[in-house]
Design goal:
Strand content: 15-25%
Helix content: 40-55%
Number of strands: 33
Mean pLDDT: 95
Shape: globular
Bound molecules: NADPH dihydro-nicotinamide-adenine-dinucleotide phosphate
Structural class: alpha/beta
Strand order of the largest sheet: 14-15-16-13-12-17-18-33-27-26
Number of helices: 29
Distance between the termini: 37 Å
Low-confidence stretches: none
């Protein structure tokens, strides 16, 4: 063929990557793999096995061992035994191992890239240029966190042995997102890769042995969901980090509800890709290709919902079809392919079914017209237009190369449509008007916003979702906290001011006038819906008064009021701080009244009660101070641009207060939530609720806008369960009995709310290290990363 002819057609010639090294590696291992436990390979004779296939050919690649109960126990035990020594290493010593792992992956990068492509079906272009470089960067970056751990996280320490479960869509990349921070922080790991894609995890284990990583620090267990489930339930694992479907995430959350395991969930998504009429449309079309056809659309943050401004919708659709027609789908090891194979026949069938459902529900379908390879599991790039916002293909995660397109007219409508999803992982905004994009970013209920770009990842920028996309972050400063705990967690009971509850009622102390404290909802004192009240008894047994017995309807009204108070979040942090200072002033003015209330209810002496009130005033000052200081970070990822890590409020938070230190305990929980801009539904301690009802009089005189704080008194277990089940409550903190904590975790899986509980333990509210400061501001917030490229 003449060069001139090539110019005419611009056809691609085949550009195959050699699979030779990967095949050689498989041969060396006789295409049969065991489990990596305590630094050794184990192939129990009795263990079941399964096969892994190449999705691009359907051919078997290897036989893999299925870890059963005995192997899970051995691996967890190995991790448990290895933990004290590994954690006792200096940060520098751990950094050297992470650095060595990064170097080894770099040395074997092509083998990793080819093997990943063969096992998963994704193109070599992606594994070679995106996955493997990100993996290497992750280990280098976290070698840095290991090195600086003592100085950067002085109050924190490792959690212990952790269980990590990953899916098949980014087998190696998600392995690095999990293992690097865990090891850097001093934890040991038992990792379970997905059944479809175990090979690169096994190669990784082999590579780790080359670095001399101590036995037991990393254990790799292959197996099905059941192996994962055994890890989740194992009592010796102190944390579970899971990436996968929302459905399995819910099961895991329920299964860990009655343990004190830390949990992070990286779940599904249905991310919007918003194109405004003033966008650079050609760039936006290229962005779309990366958003939805990257990894065959099998990406949790895939831009699978195109929201395009009506005025340019036709133009965008036409240009998109023209671009789609040029996509190349085929052999993943051909370096010029855009799309490879779908992971397995079951996933292909699922995609097909959802597309058919979309058509039945009225969508118009347009598909790539090229020829798909005969063997393997391929699906053509697909565009669905005329999609109704409530239809299945607009709401369900398809996890395939299918784009659902809708239109909007105004920016407000774009935000409404974008947020019309149970998920909240990511969003892309395309507009040449940067002001408009930055105005939109905080309104989008997602963990990552890409402005004029998409699918950008970096080890320095946390990744994770809102709502049913899960919680917790992977990567960056915020990601490290997911593998750390406070050094000082236990209560020094000798120092704590013990409260006393009356054991019997002295009827002679009957009060004369009705002193039934009402509920406080939407800035008003309201009678409880039930029409019932509950008696409150002083420490000497005399009746102190009565409190409203709140029920489901009161919680509903309180959550509604809290939702309406979203303006609190829009106030500047400075204004919120001013209001908090005002609360401190007003509390101090009434300090004698609060002291005597605390003395009567708890039996503490005057000095102790005064100490509680004074510490409370000081605590308010702390959060007024932090309100405008808990700022985000500006990351400089390896791109021409910035990623802004913004600390955002969670939204409406439910808070169940402790019995200990009734005023100080309540304020220690309420204040960080308020300082971060959340609105709150507060359930005060049942025996000491009168302290809370006295406190709403302070709120009333302190310019706190109506609905920002709502107080519903009653039975904590009952009201906590209602709050846990309420889908408009985005976060829940419980300081109470183990039953109250368990209940809250178990019943809050509906909308996957962010939850923190004391695990039935007691906190020392007078100890500022465990009860005050940044840790609480972090708990009251979630990080959103906004990526902004610059340059032309
Ligand atoms: P799953 O959530 O089923 O699997 C993810 C991981 O969890 C795998 O290692 C899996 O093992 C394991 N697992 C399965 N069941 C349990 C359990 N009960 N307890 C503990 N671990 C378990 O996702 P799938 O791979 O089956 O994909 C299904 C759908 O999930 C996709 O179509 C997609 O919508 C979504 N998904 C989302 C991802 C994301 O990144 N957010 C990634 C992958 C999938 P095994 O592989 O052996 O079944």
């Amino acid at each position: 063929m003449q060069v001139t002819e090539i110019y005419k057609t611009l056809d691609y010639s085949p550009a195959p990557e050699s699979p030779e090294q990967a095949i050689e590696w498989l041969k060396e291992n006789k295409s049969s793999f065991g489990l990596f436990i305590n630094g050794k390979w184990l192939k129990p004779k009795s263990a079941a096995v399964f096969k892994t296939f190449n999705p691009a050919s359907g051919k078997k690649l290897a036989t893999i061992t299925e870890a059963g109960k005995a192997e899970v126990n051995s691996a967890v035990n190995a991790a448990k035994q290895a933990f004290p020594k590994w954690n006792a290493l200096t940060g520098h010593e751990r950094a050297r191992y992470l650095y060595a792992i990064a170097r080894q992956i770099q040395k074997h990068s092509r083998l990793f890239a080819v093997l990943e492509s063969m096992d998963n079906g994704k193109t070599i272009r992606e594994t070679r240029d995106i996955d493997v470089p990100l993996v290497i960067r992750h280990f280098y970056h976290h070698a840095g966190w290991a090195q600086t751990l003592e100085s950067e996280f002085p109050e924190h320490t490792a959690i212990g042995p952790v269980g990590q479960i990953i899916p098949w869509n980014f087998p190696l990349m998600l392995l690095s997102w999990k293992i690097a921070p865990a090891l850097a922080a001093g934890n040991t790991v038992v990792l379970k890769p997905a059944e479809f894609t175990p090979l690169t995890a096994l190669l990784f284990a082999e590579i780790c042995s080359l670095t001399g990583l101590p036995p037991g620090v990393l254990n790799v267990l292959t197996g099905p969901g059941n192996t994962g489930s055994m890890l989740v339930k194992h009592p010796d694992l102190k944390k579970i980090a899971f990436t996968g479907s929302t459905e399995v995430g819910r099961i895991i959350r329920e299964q860990t509800a009655d343990s004190d395991k830390k949990l992070t969930l990286e779940l599904g998504g249905k991310s919007p890709f918003i194109v405004f009429e003033d966008a650079d449309l050609d760039s936006a079309i290229e962005g779309l290709v990366d958003a939805i056809w990257f990894n065959q659309g099998q990406v949790c943050c895939a831009g699978s919902r195109l929201l395009v401004q009506e005025s340019v919708a036709e133009k965008v659709t036409d240009r998109l079809k023209a671009r789609m027609a040029k996509l190349r789908v085929g052999d993943p090891l051909d370096k010029s392919m855009d799309m490879g194979a779908i992971i397995a026949p079951i996933q292909k069938k699922r995609i097909q079914k959802l597309v058919e459902k979309g058509e039945k529900e009225g969508a118009e379908i347009w598909q790539w017209q090229g020829t798909l390879p005969q063997n393997g599991y391929f699906f053509p790039p697909t565009l669905l237009t005329n999609v109704a916002p409530a239809s299945t293909v607009a709401q369900t995660e398809i996890f395939g190369p299918v784009l659902s397109s809708m239109t909007f007219r105004t920016p407000d409508e774009a935000v409404m449509l974008a947020n019309n999803s149970a998920y909240g992982l990511a969003a892309s905004v395309w507009s040449e008007n940067i002001n408009q994009s930055l105005h939109l970013a905080p309104k989008l209920k997602v963990g990552v916003v890409w402005i004029n770009c998409t699918n950008q990842f970096d080890a320095s920028a946390g990744f994770g979702g809102y709502r049913e996309s899960g919680y917790g972050r992977e990567g960056g400063h915020e990601g490290m906290f997911e593998y750390l705990k406070l050094k000082k967690g236990a209560v020094d009971s000798a120092q704590r001011l013990k409260v006393k509850q009356a054991t019997k009622t002295d009827k002679s102390g009957q009060y004369q006038i009705d002193r039934t404290a009402k509920l406080y909802i939407g800035g008003k004192q309201t009678r409880p819906d039930s029409g019932y009240s509950l008696p409150v008894v002083n420490a000497d047994g005399s009746l102190a008064g009565e409190i409203g017995h709140g029920n489901r309807k009161d919680i509903r009204n309180a959550v509604e009021a809290a939702n309406k108070a979203s303006g609190w979040h829009s106030l500047t942090p400075h204004s919120r701080a001013q209001i908090l200072y005002f609360i401190a002033e007003n509390l101090e003015t009434r300090s004698e009244e609060f002291e005597s209330r605390i003395m009567r209810l708890t039996g503490l002496n005057k000095k102790q009660a005064a100490q509680e009130v004074q510490t409370s005033v000081s605590r308010i000052f702390t959060y007024a101070a932090l309100a405008d200081k808990h700022e985000g970070l500006v990351h400089q990822p390896p791109m021409r641009g910035l990623a802004l890590a913004l600390n955002e409020p969670i939204g409406v938070m439910g808070i169940i207060c402790p019995d200990e230190a009734p005023l100080l305990g309540l304020l220690s929980l309420l204040l960080p939530a308020l300082a971060m801009g959340n609105s709150v539904v507060l359930i005060p301690s049942r025996p000491f609720a009168l302290v809370a009802t006295d406190f709403y009089q302070v709120l009333e005189t302190s310019d706190v806008p109506p609905g920002v704080v709502n107080i519903v008194s009653g039975n904590a277990l009952e009201l906590g369960t209602i709050l846990a089940k309420h889908d408009d409550v985005a976060g829940l903190w419980v300081v109470g009995t183990m039953d109250e904590c368990k209940n809250a975790k178990k019943f809050s899986t509906g909308n996957m709310k962010i939850i923190w509980t004391c695990e039935g333990k007691e906190l020392d509210w007078f100890d500022s290290q465990q009860s005050e400061g940044r840790e609480w501001m972090r708990r009251a917030s979630q990080v959103k990363n906004v990526w902004i490229p610059y340059g032309e």
